[in-house]
Amino acid sequence: MGIRFAVKVRNGATGLTVAVGLALCVVGCSSGGGDDNKAEASASATAGEQSDPTAQEGTDSPLAELKGEDGLLLTIDSAERDAGGFVTVSGEIKNDGAEAARVPIQTRGDETEIMRHGGSLGGATLVDPAKKKRYYVLRDTDGRPLTTTDMPRIKPGASIPVFMQFPAPPTDTGKVTFQLPTFASAPIEISG
């Protein structure tokens, strides 16, 4: 074994890789291929642990489509309640216009803290009409909104993915109204 190893090293890194690979095969193969079975069992367990898709997840239809200025269209694909106490709203902004367009600066809102950090979707809110409560976009410790920021100019027909995070309404609140400056409002359903 020592002589073969020395010869392999002289032949370069490929030989060393082959020698290590063979050594691993001998160790793994002598156990009757148990590692492969463990990998399959692990994959099966992971697949089994996934939750059943909700009506929202099982369809390709968006939760809402909101028209904005200059041919921009905001499509909301999901509003997921997370265990950490927040709701993440995800989707995309598409340019349905004939010319390149930017997401209007008004979408960042008019709060001084958020405005200092440039373009964002920080002006978005979720409104619970039943409890008469409004939820604003979350911010980090520096005051930056937890949303998509610094969005590029969008070419005609192109789209960009977007997200916004909000504090989670109580668990008995399932429907809220999504609002974003310069875009139409729309009711959406929170899942999770």
TrEMBL record:
Compositionally skewed regions (Polar residues) per UniProt: 43-59
Region (Disordered): 36-63
Name the UniProt record assigns to this protein: Secreted protein
